[in-house]
């Protein structure tokens, strides 16, 4: 397998923002905004479905730290945290990654979907999801 993110980590060629034993963060080649950062696990996991919970915790903790740094250092008024997992999600690199995109009022970009899915599923979807999670609707 030839994963671009694994190559960056292995060859130490990323523009590193943070490096740890479980998670790391780097600047992408074509950032959406100043301070745009990718946060990935150091070992290869394809997506959120493939990643062990302990690793996902480390990765999302680093996501939170990067977001705080963007707010404090870049004076961002918010961040978008973006992830695509699985073939139906438009995931472009099959290595779990989160985009942390600093945002400012009237910055000229929108990361919110403009349309609605044409896919239809019938029934009480909240109840079906609650059942799959093994819990009632209240928790």
UniProtKB/TrEMBL annotation:
Boundaries of every HIT domain copy: 4-110
Residues of the active site: 97 (tele-amp-histidine intermediate)
GO MF annotation terms: catalytic activity
An annotated GO BP: nucleotide metabolic process
Renumbered ranges of motif Histidine triad motif: 95-99
A Pfam family that the UniProt record links to this protein: HIT
PANTHER family in the cross-refs: ADENOSINE 5'-MONOPHOSPHORAMIDASE HNT1, HIT FAMILY PROTEIN 1
Protein name: HIT domain-containing protein
């Amino acid at each position: 397998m030839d994963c671009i993110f694994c190559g960056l980590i292995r060859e130490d060629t990323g523009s590193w923002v943070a490096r740890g034993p479980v998670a790391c963060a780097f600047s992408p080649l074509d950032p959406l905004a100043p301070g745009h950062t990718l946060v990935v696990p150091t070992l290869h996991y394809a997506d959120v479905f493939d990643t062990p919970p302990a690793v996902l915790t480390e990765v999302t903790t680093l996501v939170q730290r990067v977001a705080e740094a963007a707010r404090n250092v870049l004076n961002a008024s918010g961040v978008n945290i973006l992830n695509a997992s699985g073939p139906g999600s438009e995931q472009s690199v099959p290595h779990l990654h989160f985009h942390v995109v600093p945002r400012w009022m009237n910055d000229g970009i929108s990361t919110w979907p403009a349309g609605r899915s044409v896919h239809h599923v019938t029934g009480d979807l909240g109840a079906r999801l609650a059942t799959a999670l093994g819990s009632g609707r209240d928790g």
